[in-house]
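G.,

No rush on this.
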Amino acid sequence: MVVLVTGVCGVWIGLRLGGTRMTLWVDDGVTPLAALAACVLCFRARAGHSGRMRLFWSLLGCATASWTLAEVIWGYYALVLNMEVPVPSWADVGYLSAIPLTVAALVVHPATRGSGTRKARSVFDGLVIATALTFLSWTLVLGPLWRSADLSTWTGVVTLAYPFGDVVIVFFIVLTIRAMTGRDRLSLWCLLGALLVMALSDSTFAYLTEVANYANASPIDAGWIAAYLGIGLAAFSSHADAAVVPRPDDARPSLASLISPLLPVLLALSVAAVQIRLGHHLDRAAWLMAVGLIALVLTRQGLMVRELLAPGRHAHADLMQRLTRP
């Protein structure tokens, strides 16, 4: 359903079916409805939980409510006042308020509790992914924006706030997923996918706004529709009877958990290689992020080896079996 609705809206907006005005109504009408649906489903999930999970869905519901209000204000500018939405506008208050609410929701999630080597590696997994995404965003979007935006104005500050805030959210959602086990992990994967789509849309919006190419009813708006519906799907798929517990410290790490954080690193290094190959020199900030990313990966790999060789789990024999298995 999420894919279908997003696809239909994306095609409608891209082809401008029914004319520009009709497309604008579809765009600025469906987006707040999608955010409202996510808000309702988050508070519905809240009712089925207790304790920290109840607080998690409450805060996420408040975040989606903030997004809903922002989308309504955006639609008021575009549909009622019939004007290009200014940057910044009152809608930005709602959009930016949702970021700390989302981070707070992830911080109070039960899976973020824990200690030991596994907890430390989970933190470094999040840092590795967040740094890789920041490097990609800086190289492709944020760097050019930083050099061209006037940070002495609210427009420049607001434009850069979105992609930076999204990176922080992605860090905490990865940290939560890495530390969680049970059926409700599927719900967090849906939430991660939704927030990644939102991060991509925000970065694209920031770039188009800075180069003055963004207009109301743009195809990238389908990304926010998909993000809101994805959050709603995460809330809908949350099981009230699922035991939401942190992953045990002595649980064996899966192969996917060991490899998946390195994929964005490979992508970031590939982009850096292409940039250098094309003669686009990396600035000082990009080099610092690249060096920091390498240091984080090495530390993370050291923690991974320590976890695999932890005593009491017959890890030595298991590791040798994995290494020598044909």
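When you get to it, here's the other one too:
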Amino acid sequence: MFLLCGLGNKGSEYAFTRHNIGYLVVDKFSERFHISIQKRLCGCKVGESEEFILAKPNTYMNLSGGPIASLVKRKSVPPESLVVIHDDIDMDFGRIRIRWNGRDGGHKGVRSVATALQSPLFYRMKIGIGRNPAIPPEEYVLSRFQKDEVENLAEILDRAVDALHTFVFESIEKAMSMFNRS
């Protein structure tokens, strides 16, 4: 059983911001595979199939760890079956990278998850959101996508869903090999 958790901020004011790309990926996955994310469990909105659980912590980004750790415990998900999907300001817009373990890179949502789990041992799917040096990072991550980015966003979300599907149904190594290079 895989647990695929998209990070983001609750609330309509954050719905289509860069920091919510983890939520957007989970929403796209649920749409493609017809998995409703309506159930509330452990402080998350969840949808389940026999192979995986989709989850979006129903909190603010920096508090994501508690709900995810509760869900991991309740569903007995081993670390190698947890994927946390989040934005990465230090990667080019649209780039996808899957990795095991590692530091939080300054991402407070990832830090919250590692703290709540008392371990950095889980998979991360990072989605690049780029950086604008003219805007402080705290403001930039909460900004909405630009028009040219919106035009490419559907393709980026589709690639991220393809990567997660490969991860769950084929192999982790194949997903990393196929999607980390582009």
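The radius of gyration is 15 Å. Residues 25 and 178 are 18 Å apart (CA to CA).

Enjoy the weekend,
O.
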